[in-house]
């Protein structure tokens, strides 16, 4: 018998702050990033997903935007160890998940996404869960979207 398991994306404020300090440090010293390094942009934050089980199958996304805007979620590979190394562009997984609400959408309308990409993205996360207890993501907020206006989770099915 399978059961559904909904996992919320949680902001990792400490890791976001560490990555912002890296940008600030480079700017203050007039230095450039390492070749291939991916610096955190001002409209981005780091989120995490904790996996209580490793055998998961992707079911669906639950992304709610309280107001019009755009949210792009990019996953990092298992090769990134944030406590040891800087994030490199080669450690970002594709496709990213893009979710949005247009200004002309009704207040209770469903959030739009590129369904094929979102489904493939969800399946890749389920694959990563087989070898990881936690996974990190870059959330990019745009067009009126902000951390305060987003509620997001991903649902998997699991054999009980």
In short:
This protein is of the alpha+beta class. 20% of the residues lie in helices and 36% in strands.
Low-confidence stretches: none
Widest sheet: strand ordering? 2-3-8-5-6-7
Structural class: alpha+beta
As a percent range, the share of strand residues is 35-45%
Mean pLDDT reading:
92
Share of helical residues = 10-25%
Structural summary, described in words:
Helix content is 20%, strand content 36%. It has helices at residues 13-29, 115-129; strands at residues 2-8, 10-11, 44-50, 57-65, 69-75, 97-101, 112-113, 134-142, 150-159. The chain has a six-stranded antiparallel sheet with strand order 2-3-8-5-6-7. A three-stranded antiparallel sheet has the order 1-9-4, with helices on one face. The protein is globular.
Compile the SSE list and pairings.
Elements (H helix, E strand, L loop, with lengths): L1 E7 L1 E2 L1 H17 L14 E7 L6 E9 L3 E7 L21 E5 L10 E2 L1 H15 L4 E9 L7 E10 L1
């Amino acid at each position: 018998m399978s059961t559904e398991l909904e996992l919320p994306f949680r902001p990792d404020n400490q890791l976001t702050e560490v990555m912002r300090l890296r940008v600030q440090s480079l700017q203050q010293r007039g230095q450039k990033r390492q070749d291939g390094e991916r610096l955190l942009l001002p409209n981005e934050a780091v989120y995490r997903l904790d996996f209580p089980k490793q055998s998961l199958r992707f079911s669906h996304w639950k992304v709610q935007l309280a107001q019009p805007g755009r949210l792009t979620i990019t996953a990092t590979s298992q090769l990134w160890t944030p406590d040891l190394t800087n994030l490199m562009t080669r450690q970002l997984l594709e496709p990213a998940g893009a979710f949005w609400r247009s200004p002309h959408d009704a207040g209770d309308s469903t959030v739009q996404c590129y369904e094929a990409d979102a489904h493939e993205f969800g399946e890749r996360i389920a694959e990563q869960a087989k070898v990881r207890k936690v996974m990190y993501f870059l959330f990019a907020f745009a067009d009126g979207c902000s951390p305060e206006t987003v509620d997001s989770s991903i649902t998997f099915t699991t054999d009980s």
